[in-house]
Amino acid sequence: MQNYEIDNLDKSILEALTENARIPYAELAKKLAVSAGTIHVRVEKMKNAGIIEGTKVSINAKNLGFDVCCFIGINLKNAKDYPETIKKLEAIEEVVEAYYTTGNYSIFIKTMTRSIDHLQMLLINKIQTIEEIQSTETLISLQNPINRDVLP
Amino acid sequence: MQNYEIDNLDKSILEALTENARIPYAELAKKLAVSAGTIHVRVEKMKNAGIIEGTKVSINAKNLGFDVCCFIGINLKNAKDYPETIKKLEAIEEVVEAYYTTGNYSIFIKTMTRSIDHLQMLLINKIQTIEEIQSTETLISLQNPINRDVLP
DNA sequence: TATGAAAGACCGCTCCC
DNA sequence: GGGAGCGGTCTTTCATA
C-alpha cells in the first residue's frame, strides 16, 4: 500500500485538492483536461495507497481567539518515562502536536493558547506539574511567515 | 470580521468538517438535527468571519516518500536580517513551516526530506549557505505521537 | 433574525467502451 | 482514459416563528 509512485496528473490533483478539497471533480477534470471518471479513479487510488488520508477544513485559530502559538522543548528526568509523559501530554487539550526528537530536547511540543496568561497557566499548572519532566524551554511564536502544505 | 463568537452548533460543524471536509451538508444536518440550509448558512458565516479558511486534503507525507521530519533552530548574525532570511528560506521547498520566535532561536523552521542524506544535503548545501545565518541546531523528529487539529 | 422545507440544477459514482 | 446515465446532493428561494 506504500511507495506508490505518483505521476504528474496525481500531483496536479493533490495540488488542487490542497487548495480546495471541496472542488467538484468535474471542474477539476476540466482544469486538468481529463474526464471526471479519471479524477475519481486517481483519488481512490491515492486513498488506498494511504497518500490521501482525508479532507479537513483549515481553521484560522487566531480568529477563534487562540492567539498564542508556542513551542516547548521538554527534557525528561529519565528517557524511559517517554510513553508515560506522552500520555499525560495528550490529556492536555492545549497541546496540539508532540514530537519525539533527537537533539536538545527529549520531547518537543506545540501549544495553542488564548493569551500569554493562558500560556503561563498552562506551563505552571499543567505541564510543569508532570513529574517525569525535568525542565522545559519555551519558544513563543511571534510570527508564522511560512506555512506550506504542498510538497515538491 | 473577527472575534465572532461561535456557538455549540458551529463547534459541532467545525468538528465534523475537521474529520471530513467533504461530508455532504445533508448528512451533517441529519447528524446535528438541523436542516441543510442552516448548515449552509453557518458555514458561510464562519467563512466570512475568517474562521474557516478553506478545505484541504491531508496528505500522508511518509507514504509519498518524505520520511524525515526535522526542526531546525536558527540563530542570525543580526536580528535585522530576519526578513531577508525568511525570503531565502521560502525559496527552499523542503522548508514547510517557519516561525519567528522568542527564546533560544531567532527563527525556527520545520523541514520535510526524503531521507537523512537528503536532510544533510539540505543543511549543508542550502540552509547553511545563507550568509545571514550564524548557527543552526537540528532536532530530528523520530515520532509524532500527538497531532491534533481540533481546538477545545 | 435565524431556521425549515422544497425544487431545480448540478455533481458524483458506476458501468461499459 | 473517455463518455453517459441514474441517484443523490448543493444551493437557492420562500415561508415561518
From TrEMBL, chains A, B:
<dbReference type="InterPro" id="IPR019887">
    <property type="entry name" value="Tscrpt_reg_AsnC/Lrp_C"/>
</dbReference>
<dbReference type="InterPro" id="IPR050684">
    <property type="entry name" value="HTH-Siroheme_Decarb"/>
</dbReference>
<dbReference type="InterPro" id="IPR036390">
    <property type="entry name" value="WH_DNA-bd_sf"/>
</dbReference>
<dbReference type="InterPro" id="IPR011991">
    <property type="entry name" value="ArsR-like_HTH"/>
</dbReference>
<dbReference type="InterPro" id="IPR036388">
    <property type="entry name" value="WH-like_DNA-bd_sf"/>
</dbReference>
<dbReference type="InterPro" id="IPR000485">
    <property type="entry name" value="AsnC-type_HTH_dom"/>
</dbReference>
<dbReference type="Pfam" id="PF13412">
    <property type="entry name" value="HTH_24"/>
</dbReference>
<keyword id="KW-0805">Transcription regulation</keyword>
<dbReference type="GO" id="GO:0043565">
    <property type="term" value="F:sequence-specific DNA binding"/>
</dbReference>
<keyword id="KW-0238">DNA-binding</keyword>
<dbReference type="InterPro" id="IPR019888">
    <property type="entry name" value="Tscrpt_reg_AsnC-like"/>
</dbReference>
<protein>
    <submittedName>
        <fullName>Transcriptional regulator, AsnC family</fullName>
    </submittedName>
</protein>
<dbReference type="GO" id="GO:0006355">
    <property type="term" value="P:regulation of DNA-templated transcription"/>
</dbReference>
<dbReference type="InterPro" id="IPR019885">
    <property type="entry name" value="Tscrpt_reg_HTH_AsnC-type_CS"/>
</dbReference>
<dbReference type="Pfam" id="PF01037">
    <property type="entry name" value="AsnC_trans_reg"/>
</dbReference>
<keyword id="KW-0804">Transcription</keyword>
<feature type="domain" description="HTH asnC-type">
    <location>
        <begin position="6"/>
        <end position="67"/>
    </location>
</feature>
<dbReference type="InterPro" id="IPR011008">
    <property type="entry name" value="Dimeric_a/b-barrel"/>
</dbReference>
